[in-house]
Structure formats: C-alpha cells, structure tokens
Amino acid sequence: MITVSGLTKHYGDRVVVDDVSFTLEPGTVTGFLGPNGAGKSTTMRMMTGLVPATAGTTLVDGRPYADLPNPGAVVGTLLDASAVHPGRTGRVHLRLLASAVGVPASRVDEVLELVDLTAAARRRVGGYSLGMRQRLGIAAALLADPAVLVFDEPANGLDPEGIRWMRDLLRGHAARGGTVLLSSHLLGEVEHTVDRLLVIGGGRIVADAPVAELLGGDGTAVRALDPAALVPALEAAGFHVQHGSDGALLVPGVEPAAVGAVAAAGGHVLVDLRPVRRGLEDLFFQLTAA
Are strands 28-33 and 179-183 parallel, antiparallel or unpaired? Predict the structure, then answer.
C-alpha cells in the first residue's frame, strides 16, 4: 500500500504541487491524469525520492520510501525512458541495474524476453527507437518483480500492439495483488486499463474515485420501430426525452431497465436499448477546466 499525505512542492514562489493526498491499494491499477504542468510528474518524482518534497510524506507499507532497505525491489519505476547511457547495450544496462537491486543476472534475460527485446539486447541503446526504450524502461522496472509499479507515460512511443501488451501486463500485475500507478495522456487507453482515477489540476487533486463511479450512467439511449409512439409513453411516465443526433431517443438520468419497462407495458418494439455513459475525455476537461 502507498499512502501519500500532504505532498507539496514549491519552486520559489510557484506552487507546483499543493497538499496532494491519496492512497494506492494493492490489486488495483490507478490512473493519474492531468494536463501538462498540473503536477503529475513532480508528484511521482517526490513519491520515489527523485525530487525533495517541500512538505508531506509518502509511505510504502508504512515506511518512508528513503528508509526502504532496497527501494528498487519494492517499487519499480519508469519515469524517464531516455535516462539511459546511449553507449550501453540493453543487456549491459539491465545487468548493471540487476546488480544494484540484488537480483541474479539470469533475471535480465527473463525480462528482456518479457518485453520482447531479446533480439535487440546486444544493440546499443542509442540506436533504439522510442518504443524500444520504453520497453527497456519497463524491463528495468520489472527486474526485482516489485509489488508496486509507478509508470509515467509508459505508452509513449508504443504501437497499438505494444499498448495492448502493456495493458495486459499492468492488469496482470494488479490481478496478482500488485499496486500500479499509471500516468498517461492516452485517455481512451486509461479508461480501458485502470480501476480508479486520480485527476490533478493546478497542483491539487480534483477527483479520486473508481472509474465506474466517475463515469457513471448519464441515462439511456433507445430506438423503437415507432419512435413517435414511444415518446409520449415515456413522457407520460415522467421521463424527459431528447432526440439524439444519430436518431436515437435519449432519456437522461434514467436506467435502461426503467425505459424498457415502459416500452414493454405499452407494447412498443425496441431495436436498441443501452446506457449512455459520460466519456473520460469529457470528464477530464470538465474537472481540469479551471
């Protein structure tokens, strides 16, 4: 478990992160969203000791990150995939890190295969594509099989196949009881990967809740063989009916079961009945507009 309490960062008179608090539970993938400059990366770097906090604490299972005997064995991080010596090969880079975190050299070949970099292991990192450097950074984070993963924009440079692979990797880690914090600008991918959302705007947390709760139902979309007859039936039941741009009838704030019950009672034949949910993009801009 990760407990962040009152994290704050000042650069002179500028407040970059302002009293940020949250808890990351085992078995979950948490998405950390916010516009550029909102404080995401600074928060993640304070959590992992790369940037000193002006105030506040981060506890990993009740201990400050700096007090962990071997932090890399507990928290695997990918915060800057370019922070690798370009003259080293991928295998040498990982072997040096493996030695630092106390895992056998044999583990290097295992993670290279896991991230599909075995064929490129003897090439110098300076010749890697952006996507390959991302995979190398993920391999480094996985070396000690840590319980916690903290990834900042891990999908950057990955192709669609790579993004799907990364999604399965993170979901699998959480399914085994691991804890994942993921920041990304790919809102659609986040929506399909995470269980919970943290949204930061202007250095403050503006939302912290399960995805299903934040994107909860906005109503029902329904199509009928005779929509002109269905509309008065729905209005007689006290529902407000709108006409959607795609020809469907929209019933805000009402679950599909209630709309279906009205249709069934009146003998209306339906060809489509589905919930209307708010998209993550709309929610993101609504929460961070200020």
Answer: parallel
Look at residue 21 in the predicted model and tell me its pLDDT: 96
pLDDT tens string 198-250: 999 889 998 898 887 777 667 899 999 999 999 999 999 999 999 887 789 99
pLDDT digits (tens, 9 = 90+) for 152-162: 988 888 888 98
pLDDT in tens, 24-33: 999 999 999 9
Q: Are 263 and 226 in contact (CB under 8 A)?
A: no
Collapsing DSSP to helix, strand or coil, 154 comes out as coil
Instruction: List, in order, residues 6 or more apart from 202 with CB less than 8 Å away.
Output: 18, 38, 39, 290
Q: Print burial letters for 153-189: b (CB count within 10 Å at least 16), e (below 16).
A: bbbbbbeeebbebbbebbbebbeeebbbbbbbeebeb
Contacts of 175 (CB under 8 A, 6+ apart): 27
Residues 57, 6: contact at Cβ < 8 Å?
yes
Q: Stretch 243-272: mean pLDDT, rounded?
A: 91
| Structural contact between residues 254 and 239, judged by C-beta atoms closer than 8 angstroms | yes
Q: How far apart are the first and last CA of the chain?
A: 31
- For residues 129 and 127, what is the distance between their CA atoms, to the nearest angstrom? 7
Which residue in this structure is represented by tokens 């139902």?
Answer: 217
Alpha helices in the chain (DSSP H): 40-47, 71-74, 90-101, 106-114, 130-142, 160-175, 187-193, 211-214, 227-236, 256-266, 280-288
The Cβ-side half-sphere exposure at 283, using a 13 Å CA radius, reads 25
For the question of whether the overall pTM of this predicted structure is more than 0.90, the answer is no
As given in the structure block, the two tokens for residue 187 are 């809102």
